[in-house]
Specification:
single chain; alpha/beta; TIM Barrel; binds zinc ion
């Protein structure tokens, strides 16, 4: 249990970052009478020293923080550096762009320090947790279980439906890519496979293969569907290449909904240029699914950092999942967790949450030249292990068009292995919307008092607890259950 400092002297983005770190730590925040019994978090002054930055950016282990009886000391310099990372000071609107208009990954502080493959801010949050427990002494010390159903970490499988019509064109593009790499063996295998599929529906088969793999472990996933109108220009751009009202997409949506998967919007170039278009595209999707679309991810990860997220929030989306790297895998925000999006222009948090992804199938094949699907999966599992270490969220992107006929022999079997391994490692496999709703509600919990028997009096925000979907368990440092917060 932790009592937060008076945040008046802090810059707004430092306040935001401190709230995100304490949230990620899983510590129960004390308010009211409970504050007197909690460990006090104290920000210690000092210039940004190389040592503080190095401690944070060394990664690979929780940051060691000073603690003494009843107090945890967090250097302000560490908080400032964490705020630079989380609010994307070097990786946002001012960063140089790649050919798709995205901030280049090499502008990111964590990439520059070569630690993007570690969730460094989640590790800092773990450090805050461990030091608080150590500083508690005889005081009551409570932690909220990180995920529902006794799970210690979460994994979200997500899919962008980029291809749903004219599939031979995509096979052709992939053949050109393989030829440029001189991968003749794979090229011939793709040609043979595609020729044999001309009269079938490989796109539907790709979707079914993904869903069948998930059914075997009872996982539900998140699907992002493009809802623009295809034109000759949008096809040439690789932007909008199908109509969501087409028969094939409608049938795919029917299976997704029947099996309890989440359907969100895959925003196109149109929504980057004009954020006002989000609302129309969202409405178009909801008309097809008959349910609210709460999540969004931009196609090609194209966005105007800050501007696009604000437009997403204005259009009523609850979360975005565009934050991540296109050309490498890792934790772009430093957090393996859900957090409110920072808005530099207003100096406050937006109403929309970020559910960052840390792994994408094509990052290795398209940008790093690695074509063996099993190596992509090894990479995914390495990052999943790091998310598990911090009790966090691993979110990965798998494109259902990665099938032999479209140029990716061996990919479906590799995906099935990923799903099996995430499940066997005990992850809470849930759609992103369920993850976000539960985490937002957990964030609202507070201890207002502690009884002589050591039971905290819990309160939470009713408007978000209503949608949490699963109850919350509050345990003491021995792991004994001390309180449960039920949801309606
Ligand atoms: Zn896409």
């Amino acid at each position: 249990m932790i009592a937060l400092p008076d945040s008046t002297p802090l810059e707004a983005r430092e306040r935001h970052t401190l709230a995100c770190l304490v949230d990620a730590s899983g510590l129960l925040i004390a308010e009211g009478a409970a504050r007197a019994q909690a460990v006090r978090l104290v920000l210690t002054p000092g210039e940004l020293s190389g040592a503080a930055a190095e401690a944070l950016l060394r990664a690979q282990a929780p940051v060691q923080l000073l603690c003494r009886d009843g107090e945890l000391h967090l250097p302000r310099t560490v908080l400032t550096l964490a705020a630079d990372i989380l609010t994307r000071r070097h990786d946002g609107a001012s960063a140089p762009r790649d050919i798709h208009g995205r901030p280049v990954s090499t502008a990111n502080t964590l990439v520059r320090a070569e630690v993007e493959r570690w969730p460094v801010l989640s590790l800092l949050a773990r450090g805050i947790h461990d030091a608080t427990v150590a500083a508690a002494g005889a005081r009551p010390c409570f932690t909220i279980a990180p995920w529902p159903d006794g799970k210690r970490w979460a994994a979200a499988l997500s899919h962008d439906l980029d291809v749903a019509s004219l599939w031979p064109a995509f096979t052709g593009l992939r053949l050109v890519e393989l030829a440029a790499k001189g991968d003749i063996r794979r090229l011939l295998s793709v040609l043979g496979g595609a020729a044999g599929r001309l009269l079938s529906d490989p796109i539907r088969e790709g979707v079914d293969t993904v869903l069948d793999a998930e059914v075997t472990v009872g996982a539900r996933s998140t699907w992002f569907i493009i809802c623009g109108t295809p034109t000759f220009a949008s096809f040439l751009n690789g932007d909008v290449t199908y109509s969501p009202e087409s028969r094939r997409v409608k049938k795919i949506l029917a299976r997704l909904i029947a099996e309890g998967h989440e359907v969100g919007l895959h925003g196109s170039l149109e929504t980057v240029r004009d954020g006002g278009r989000f609302e129309a595209q969202r409405g178009r999707l909801e008309a097809l699914t008959g349910r609210p679309a709460r999540g969004v991810r931009q196609h090609f990860l194209r966005r105007a950092v800050g501007v696009t997220e604000r437009a997403m929030g204005d259009a009523g989306f609850a979360y975005d999942s565009t934050c991540g790297f296109a050309d490498r895998n890792g934790f772009r925000s430093g957090l393996a967790d859900v957090f409110p999006v920072w808005d530099e222009s207003t100096g406050g948090a937006l109403s929309i949450e970020e559910a960052p992804f840390c792994w994408m199938d094509r990052a290795l094949s398209k940008y790093q030249g690695i074509e063996a699907p099993d190596r992509w999966i090894d990479d995914a599992l390495e990052l999943a292990g790091r998310s598990e270490t911090v009790g966090g969220l691993w979110c990965g992107i798998w494109h259902p068009n990665l099938i032999p006929a479209l140029g990716f022999p061996g990919a479906p079997a590799a995906y099935a292995r990923l799903v099996r391994e995430l499940s066997s490692r005990g992850a809470w496999l849930a759609p992103l919307d369920a993850v976000v709703r539960w985490r937002v509600a957990r964030r609202s919990l507070r201890a207002m008092d502690v009884s002589p028997e050591g039971v905290p009096t819990m309160v939470g925000a009713p408007e978000v607890l209503r949608f949490a979907g699963a109850s919350f368990r509050v345990c003491d440092r021995q792991g004994t259950l001390r309180a449960t917060v039920a949801t309606p």
